[in-house]
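== Folding the chain ==

***
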Amino acid sequence: MSPTSLLVVEDESIVAMDIKHRAEGLGYRVVGMAASGEEAIKLAREEKPDLVLMDIVLKGEMDGIEAAEVIREEMNIPVVYLTAYSDEKTLSRAKLTGPFGYIIKPFEDRELHSAIEVALYKHRMDSKLRESEERYRALLETSPDPIILLDSDSRILFANRTVEELTGLNRKKLKGKKLSILERRGLISRDVLEKILDLMNHDHKTFEIEFVDVKGRKHHFEIHSTTIETTTEKNLLQIIGHDITDRVEAEKRREELIRERSKAQLYGFVVSAVPVFASSIPPQLRNAIIKNFADRFEKNLKPNFQRMMEKLGVVEDIRSGSAPERVFNAYIKWLSGFLGNLGIETTLRKEKSRYVLEFKTFPWINEARQNPIFSLIFRAMLMRSFTWTGIKGSVIQTSTLRSRDENLTFEFHMV
């Protein structure tokens, strides 16, 4: 392993030779000596030393501080200052160049050795840290996921290339702007903005949002957040959006297929059951057929109901039997969606202590006025699905569609 190479910058030739001999006596290799700032830069470019010993006060237009700044920025070579001046003004100016140490003249060999070794160690550590930061920044920059770093005032400190591509906003101009700029540009809704800003109060919270990019395309993102603290700043928030548009669209197609299958099964059951109800089959057998339908209905639709309740955040209420009004509202939302997929529009109104659900449209209205099977099937669906809510109460059918002036209606009574 070759010895550490040094460049000595000192305008007093006798002092320069003394430093050279002492450094070589400590096992270092002096690759050059310069008497001016300009010469120091030239030799540093040619010899590329491991470290520069730089006198602050030099003859000529460029002093040691200016030369050190060029060497550090252009060649990333560590500099240790040699100075007989320890006044605050000089040191303050020297600090701005990021030196790796100071040696106050006159100095002992052990001081020179210690200053060089500490400076080399600090430079190695700084280089590793800088490489790590550059790798991390490159990872952030090239990530296909949009990444934003916010300060505690929701101002953007960093936005990667994907953010720029999605928003059409120059990320350099985004820096320092508040996140609300995305709402003002119509890229996110107010509700989404508030959800993101609320992340300041939570660690590792995850949720889904809709985002419209600069080209008007709708995306679905799963938002992940992490709070970050540095030595200089606290409460920084890193937000990463993972594009789940394909997954969401696939789930929608799957749900559509399930709805179509459920609709086909219901239609098929209705058609097959009409002759039975048109015949003289005893009521007991009709009841058995209806129960069989209710069982099949529960097997196929209860998982969908449970997913909706989980999404609406009422699963624990159902388990504990609490907040019946909240559970009922969630149930009606699910039920309206299910019936809507069958082409049935409904309205809900409250009358004193009960809720009345009215079917405004009904695909089989003419058949239903002739045959009770339709009313019985929907009564079975409502009675069975209402039991899934855990709400104490009952469902009562109040219209059978036999009159041309009536719609099918049900009443929900809650204890």
